[in-house]
Each structure stands twice: as C-alpha cells, then as structure tokens.
Amino acid sequence: MSELQLKVLELLKEDARRAPELIATMLDVTEEEVKDAIAALEQDHVIVKYATVVNWSKVDNDKVTALIEVQITPERGRGFEGIAERIYLYPEVKSVYLMSGAYDLLVEVEGKSLRQVANFVSDKLSPIDAVLSTKTFFILKKYKQDGIIFEEDEGDHRLMVSP
C-alpha cells in the first residue's frame, strides 16, 4: 500500500464525504491521483463501505445493544472461523471479534428490546454445539464511538476555590 493510499484512508476515515478535489488539495497531489487511489482501495476491498456514525440517543429509537463474551471450542481444521461465520450470519449480529484473554469471541448484537436480545442468546447463540458459555452486557449509554464524542461538553460549572 502506498503512502498516498494511507493518507487518503486517514482523511476518508475522518470524513467519508470529503471530495477527491479537497483531498488532493490537502495532500498536494492531483485529483486524478486521489481518484485512482480510492478506486484501487475499493477494488482491493480495503475500503469496504462508506458509513454514517449516528448518535442514536438523539433519535426516538429504542434499540438495545449488547456485547456478548462467548467461549467456544474451536473446530478441527477451521479453528474459530466456522463458528464465527455461523454467528455473524444472524441479522441481529452487528460485529464479531476474535479476542485474546478469558473468552474467544466478542459479539455485538442489536435488538428492539432486552427480551429480543435475551432470546437471541438463549435460542440461537447458546445452542450452538461449540459454544461453551456466554456472558451478556447491555450497553446503557455510548459516550464515544469511532473517535466521535457524542456528548457536548457543558464546561466546568464548579466554583473556583482559591487559598
């Protein structure tokens, strides 16, 4: 990967709406070089999707998100891949990560209610033969995601204390 491609990735990660013309100006290269870099990154599946980060707490939307620690027995010949694939194909599953430490997979699940997420764990996830145990944590509030701070700084309203 070229240095230009890395710089283009960083700029698009900060704001995916940046136009190639602006990126070219910021990097002091031609617009054509930027377009070629983006096209190559898309073709190589380095850039997979352009997405919007939404602060769902500002929207009247009662989604419930949970993080589930999953301990599994790896499959012979495939390791964790087959089980991870089986889990990430469920529509409720937003992310699956292979982890080091006390558990093997971290699964992010989204549902309309606590009950829906609980049913996913009890009816779909736990019955998988390779799953040894699960531990579910419901997200109560997001303060920061993908480098974006959701809460506006209200400043320090404490009284100043002087000696």
Structure, explained:
InterPro entries: AsnC-type_HTH_dom, Dimeric_a/b-barrel, HTH-Siroheme_Decarb, Tscrpt_reg_AsnC-like, Tscrpt_reg_AsnC/Lrp_C, WH-like_DNA-bd_sf, WH_DNA-bd_sf. It holds the Pfam family AsnC_trans_reg. The chain is an alpha+beta fold and 163 residues long. The protein folds into two domains: 3-43, Orthogonal Bundle (Arc Repressor Mutant, subunit A), CATH 1.10.10; 60-141, 2-Layer Sandwich (Alpha-Beta Plaits), CATH 3.30.70.920. The protein has five helices and six strands; from the N terminus they run αααβαββαβββ. β5 and β6 form a beta hairpin.
Keywords, separated by commas or semicolons:
alpha+beta; 6 strands; two-stranded antiparallel ribbon; Alpha-Beta Plaits; 2 domains; 163 residues; 4-stranded antiparallel sheet; Arc Repressor Mutant, subunit A; single chain
Unreliable residue runs: none
Supply the helix-strand structural class. alpha+beta
Strand residues, percent: 15-25%
As for the CATH topology of the largest domain, it is: Alpha-Beta Plaits
Helix percent band: 25-40%
Pfam families: AsnC_trans_reg
Protein name: Lrp/AsnC family transcriptional regulator
Organism: Paenibacillus chungangensis
Domain HTH asnC-type: 1-81
Describe this structure in a few short sentences.
This protein has 163 residues and is an alpha+beta fold. The protein is built from five helices and six strands, in the order αααβαββαβββ. The longest helix is centred in the N-terminal third of the chain and has 13 residues, at 31-43.
Write the layout of secondary structure elements.
Blueprint: H1 3-14, H2 20-27, H3 31-43, E1 64-72, H4 81-88, E2 93-98, E3 105-111, H5 114-125, E4 131-138, E5 144-145, E6 148-149
Helix pairs in contact: 1-3, 2-3
